[in-house]
Design brief:
Number of strands: 2
Order of helices and strands: HEEHHHHHH
Strand content: under 5%
Structural class: mainly alpha
Helix content: over 70%
Mean pLDDT: 87
Largest sheet: 2 strands, antiparallel
Distance between the termini: 36 Å
Radius of gyration: 18 Å
Strand order of the largest sheet: 1-2
Number of helices: 7
Length: 197
Amino acid sequence: MNLNLPNRITLARIFMIPLMLVALLVDFEWWTHELQFGNYHLPLNQLIGALLFIVAASTDGIDGYIARKRNMVTNLGKLLDPLADKLLVAAVLVALAAMGKCDSWMVIIIISREFAVTGLREVALLEGSVIAASKWGKIKTITQIVAISALLLNNFPFEWLNIPFDDIAIWLAVLITIYSGIDYFVKNKALFSLSKA
């Protein structure tokens, strides 16, 4: 197992997931204290969870950049990096649904798309090809991270402007998630005819 610097950063992202879930879901009385700025309220545990999520999400670009810049790309990294991304987003979305901050059906759609595209990539690997990340796949990831951050931060700073940015962002994330999933399957439909041969 080649645990170079990029792979260690990716593993750190995975290990941060249970810390986020503890922050968001475990009811420690002292850290559910609410921070208040005028009409804006944010429980301390949500702030901690949001900061952990933002730090973890930001490491995604860092590990990939270092791996390419220093020629440290490994098969382990190719496996761990997308897995870490999916685990991070799925875990926090499930936590948000449990907290009543987003609808469960939205979480199901987003996670189902990830399973479907992962399955498509597995089929491609069995056929000897690799499906690279698409432009829409990258946009999907960015919109999901923005939406999750807005939900965790109780719509900061848009709450002061009476703009429901968090609601708009999660709806946009769901729509782009669906579109990017369809885009992967349409562009790789040849795989299905190959797998029948």
